[in-house]
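Weekly structure sync, notes
Attendees: PL, DS, HV (note-taker this week)

Item 1: Short-chain dehydrogenase
DS walked through the input record. Source organism listed as Actinoplanes friuliensis DSM 7358. Sequence as pasted into the shared doc:
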Amino acid sequence: MTDSKTILITGASSGIGAATARRLADQGHTVVLGARRVDRLEAIRDAGGDVHIDRLDVTDRADVTRFVDAAVSTHGRIDVLINNAGVMPLSMLDALLVEEWDRMIDVNIRGLLHGIAAALPHFQRQGSGHFITVASIGAHEVSPTAAVYCGTKYAAWAITEGLRREVDPSVRVTTISPGVVESELAESISDPVARAEMKAYRANSIPADAVARAAAYAIGEPDGVDVNEIIVRPAMQR
Ligand SMILES: NC(=O)c1ccc[n+]([C@@H]2O[C@H](COP(=O)([O-])OP(=O)(O)OC[C@H]3O[C@@H](n4cnc5c(N)ncnc54)[C@H](OP(=O)(O)O)[C@@H]3O)[C@@H](O)[C@H]2O)c1
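Item 1 (cont.): predicted structure, written out as tokens:
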């Protein structure tokens, strides 16, 4: 175990966020978990480690600010914010599921921006910090039914890279882009065509802990080493 850090994770109630929470807690870090399904967060906390939980809706800027500020006031500082919360209700554009487009924009883009807005002042004041964005392979390529989802992930990639270019080198910035990972993500797909296609596409998946290990690697590097980009996907995924 190296230095113990205080690490905040959004969308920690299932999938990648939950696996990352467990791995980092097992490594001896203090983890602060945010999501809307508090019962799921309680189960992770009850499994052991220095785990703190907080009901969080990343679409609400004030709620994200409160989440981050509360962690600073409880723990004295924050070292890492993992902006992981995301939704993926895929559909063809001509299905016109505009409310689902809006939800992806609100969670995947606005949620990320709310996290940056909440944590950046603390990182600047502390003279250290680490942003990790969980983007997607969808930040690198676009496929039918995923136009809006990929749009949000391209945006997440661009915002995170812009942040990296702008911030003082005392703040590290990492984008992790997973391929197909076991999680509940595809359950948000309401469109029957996209749902059937995704079932076949997602047959080859890797465990969420594969992404957790990538996050742990980036966090574990020394302060002067900034791991900027990681793509983790199933070997079978082309
Ligand atoms: N699994 C994959 O194949 C894959 C591939 C590439 C990228 N990703 C990305 O990985 C990230 C995690 O997804 P996952 O695969 O682990 O899926 P998941 O199991 O569905 O987890 C998504 C998490 O986001 C949270 N969330 C959704 N809306 C939220 C909101 N308004 N406020 C706070 N939290 C919210 C959910 O918690 P609550 O519902 O409890 O709020 C849940 O914890 C996402 O950004 C996703 O786009 C996943």
